[in-house]
Amino acid sequence: MSYIQVHDLSKQYGHGEAAVLAVRGINFGIASGELIAIMGESGSGKSTLLTVMGALNSPGRGKYWVDKIDVYALGQEERADFRRNYLGFVFQSFHLIPYLTVRENVMLPLTPVNIRKKEKRAMAEEALGRVGLSGKGERLPSQISGGEQERVAIARAVVNKPPILLADEPTGNLDTKNTREMMNLLQELNSDGMTIIMVTHNPECAQYARRILRLSDGLLVEEENIS
Amino acid sequence: MNLWDIALRNLKRRKSKAAFVLVGLTIGVSAVVVFISLAEALTQNINSKLEEYGANILIVPKTENLSMSYGGISLGGVLFEMQEIHEEELAKIGEIANAKNVAAVGPMLLGAIEMGSRKALLAGMDFQVASQLRPWWKFQGSVPDEEGVLAGAEAARVLGLGVGKPVAVNGRSLVVSGILDATGSQDDHILFTRLATAQSILNKEGRISLAEVAALCSGCPIEEMVRQISEIIPGANVMAIKQVVEGRMETLNQFRKASYGLSAIVALVGALVVLVTMMGSVRERTAEIGIFRAIGFRSSHIMKIILLEAGIVSVLAGVLGYLLGLGATKIALLFFVAGSGHAGHGIAVPLDPLLAGAALALAIVLGLAASFYPARVAARLDPCEALRAL
């Protein structure tokens, strides 16, 4: 079994005639430390797949294991703990909390963790340093650029050093320069051993991955290894 | 950064919502404080006013005789020529457990006297406590000295007495120092003199026929006081003038019940304001809650954040509500007692730590109870659905 194993995964929205099968019987495995790109047209099921892999969206059928943990066999609260311990999320629109400073946004995943404030602060500073935002911790999200907001989102995702990073269109709102910087940053995190699964439309971004999974109409239609 | 910080930051960010919850709770708590403080202050006020109606406990000697009536009040076995209580025994009343509730003790010696060819009833009493035991008395002239006598209106008319005129009582010459205005009671038929003078005239030094006690009834069970006095003066028959006492307590209890009812209604309205506002706040924050859940916050963490916010506002509302309630009580008292000839500011509204604590507890309980459902809704939000709201 791979570090991440998806087996016969299906997800349906709605019932009866209004039912939409967003993901249909998908199977694949991801080794620890891989950088995977999931591509596909709009409505192909890639975002649904990412939410299922993010332990946020119970599949109607199939199994999903991470590190031999049957994720959807866990209770709601245990699944929250799983997300905190195993996953980092980077959302397409950054989704920073506007009334918290940059540092506080980065510290968010550490909030429920029972460690000293000083230590949390040090971890946040380290994550901010890693994304090149040292010294901007006191600013509010509205006081930094879009590219910087994306980096704050990454710092937040990696602050507690999760083994897996899930990114939904991480460069969707960035210009070419910031897109390149973002991809370099993800590659750097991956080279440090973090498993990264990224949903993207952008073929250039997909080229940073070792493997591309292509979805169409909820089906996994192609797996492409990048040399 | 912890859950407390997030709750505080959110309150600062959503000041208008927090203010709305604060105002709703503060009004609810202050209304409760007003009603309870008002009930307490008016209780004291009514008590002090009711004291003006005079004695509410009678101490008479134990007797096998049939009871007689005194001003419509049962006097037990008081007869003009019967055994008396020793005056010094009354001092023991100061030693009973509820001694602090005793406002005044008025000893009285009754005896028949001869005034020429006529007979009359002489009452010796302590005129220092007469103003408390018979506040309704009005008279022409002055309070009698050792050689004076205060005549009831009817007695003065029948005996042809006038202020300053001499009167022979059992052969002793006294002066009429004053004449009572008609009271409609048995007092109209009696000649009053100082206790020592009456004891001397009636040859009953150190003895009394009965004693009247004015008890402050707020928080003192009158029956218990009767029992305590009976224990320390075993030779006496101690009786509560029940109509007065029960009337007092009934009035106060009804006012209290009405106050509590109104308090409950206002508090409920305050709680509803909190519930509606917090529900609105939760709906506004759906996306934010989705992010929290996605990055690993448990449902219980979300509940804690919402309840912490409610708790912080509730504590503030408790303190503000208590202070505001005290102020409003003082103002309300001006209106409540304005028509009774008392200045409202004359009634004290003291800082009551118990009421302050209760106000704080009420605010916290109301705030948390009303926020529990919104917190539960927030905690149960499907993170995936919540993120779709982004």
Describe the model.
The complex is a heterodimer of chains A (227) and B (390). Chain A is α/β, with parallel strands linked by helices and 227 residues long. Chain A has a single domain, classed as Rossmann fold (3-Layer(aba) Sandwich). Chain A has 7 helices and 10 strands. In chain A, the strands form 2 sheets. Chain A has a 6-stranded mixed β-sheet with strand order 6-7-8-3-9-10, sandwiched between helices. In chain A, strands 2-1-4-5 form a 4-stranded antiparallel β-sheet, with helices on one face. In chain A, helix 4 (117-130) packs across helix 5 (146-158). The mean pLDDT of chain A is 90. Chain B has 390 residues and is of the alpha+beta class. Chain B folds into 2 domains: 3-49 and 249-388, no CATH class; 56-240, no CATH class. Chain B contains 11 helices and 14 strands. In chain B, the strands form 3 sheets. In chain B, strands 1, 5, 6, 7, 8, 9, 10, 11, 13 and 14 form a 10-stranded mixed β-sheet that branches. A two-stranded antiparallel sheet of chain B has the order 2-3. Chain B has a two-stranded antiparallel sheet with strand order 4-12. In chain B, strand 2 (69-70) and strand 3 (73-74) form a beta hairpin. In chain B, helix 1 (3-13) packs across helix 9 (299-336). Chain B is rod-shaped, with a radius of gyration of 33 Å. Chain B starts with a helix and ends with a helix. Classes of the chains: A alpha/beta (227), B alpha+beta (390). Chain A binds chain B through residues 51, 54, 56-57, 76-77, 80-81, 83-85, 87-89, 91, 93, 95, 97-100, 104, 107-112, 117, 120-121, 124, 156-157, and chain B through 1-3, 5-6, 9-10, 12-13, 287-288, 291-301, 383-384, 387, 390.
Number of strands of chain B: 14
Low-confidence region ranges of chain A: none
The proportion of residues in beta strands of chain B is 15-25%
General shape of chain B: rod-shaped
CATH class of chain A: Alpha Beta
Number of domains of chain A: 1
> What is the succession of H and E elements of chain B?
HHEEEEEEHEEHEEEHEEHEHHHHH
Query: Helix segment count of chain A?
Result: 7
Mean pLDDT of chain A: 90
Q: How many domains of chain B, as an integer?
A: 2
Helix and strand sequence of chain A: EEEHEEHEHHHEHEHEE
Mean pLDDT of chain B comes to 83
Oligomer state equals heterodimer
CATH topology of chain A: Rossmann fold
- Relevant CATH superfamily of chain A: P-loop containing nucleotide triphosphate hydrolases
User: The biggest beta sheet of chain B, please?
Assistant: 10 strands, mixed
- Compute the number of helices of chain B: 11
Helical content class of chain A: 25-40%
